[in-house]
Amino acid sequence: LDFLISPAERYDLIVDFSQVPMGTKVKLTNYPGTQAHFPGIPGCGPEIADIMQFEVTKPLSGGGDRTTPPEKLRLQAVAPIKPKPHTRRREWVVYQHELYRTMTFNAVPYMEPSQDFIKEGSTEIWEYINPNHDAHPMHVHLVNFQVLNRQPIDAAAYQKDYDKWICGGRKPKDHPVLANYFTGPPIPPNPDETLSYKDTVKAPAQMVTRIIIQEFVPPKRDIASIPNSGAELPATYIHH
């Protein structure tokens, strides 16, 4: 069994040890991803491949196996968020190029004032445009979303025209039109992303990753079960 998980993602796994022979050692191992940042370049610390090991050494005690049989397990039903013709779309370019070196959204430095304002209760589609050579996990605070799809783009051409637009003064009429750079049809979300709510999504290299966020309503009372920790309007959201 293997699965692809990015930083900040969480997976719930159910492992059945009932048919594993006594004395077996089962390892949870981390393999370097094909779209990892700076692949092939050693990190500043030791590379740890083995994360965890389970040893099957004793028979089950405590009255036998009381877990639910796998064939009877059911996930909670989640209705798809359906975009409407007037649903607003926002483009977020994962910009990591000559101007700033560090990663930004839409080539805007981190300390610049907010430029995007959302009406409370609205539903929006966000398009993360990643013209780089490595994947990046995108995490949105305080709201959950669903993954709509991903779509490949001509990343080199988009990056070139986007740089030209920035150096030309960011004139709205000259902004690159995303649809002109598609190189294939939309790709449905992965099975582990389908009809589920997430707060982190993998944005692969040279692709557009689309998510839909339903009803931007900031928690006004409690956050993470902390009393009176909610936000007051206007609320500031972070995503990175």
Could you describe the 3D structure shown?
With 240 residues, this protein is mainly beta. It has a domain at 88-213: Cupredoxins -  blue copper proteins (Immunoglobulin-like, Sandwich), CATH 2.60.40.420. The protein contains 1 helix and 9 strands, in the order βββββββαββ. The protein has one helix at residues 155-167; strands spanning 25-29, 50-55, 88-95, 104-105, 124-130, 136-139, 145-152, 200-203, 207-213. The strands form 3 sheets. The chain has a 5-stranded mixed sheet with strand order 4-3-5-9-7, with no helix packed on it. Strand 3 and strand 4 form a beta hairpin. The longest helix is centred in the C-terminal third of the chain and has 13 residues, at 155-167.
Defining key terms:
240 residues, mainly beta, Immunoglobulin-like, 5-stranded mixed sheet, two-stranded antiparallel ribbon, 1 helix, globular
Order of the strands making up the biggest sheet: 4-3-5-9-7
- Put simply, the count of helices is 1
User: What series of H and E elements makes up the topology?
Assistant: EEEEEEEHEE
Rough shape? globular
Which residues sit in consecutive blocks of at least 5 with pLDDT less than 50?
none
Could you tell me the CATH topology label of the domain at 88-213. Immunoglobulin-like
Structural class: mainly beta
State the name of the first-level CATH class of the domain at 88-213.
Answer: Mainly Beta
* Biggest sheet details: 5 strands, mixed
Helix content: under 10%
Question: For the residues shown, what is the average pLDDT?
Answer: 85
Q: Termini separation (Å)?
A: 30 Å
From the alpha carbons, calculate the radius of gyration and give it in angstroms.
22 Å
Corresponding CATH superfamily of the domain at 88-213: Cupredoxins -  blue copper proteins
Level-2 CATH architecture of the domain at 88-213: Sandwich
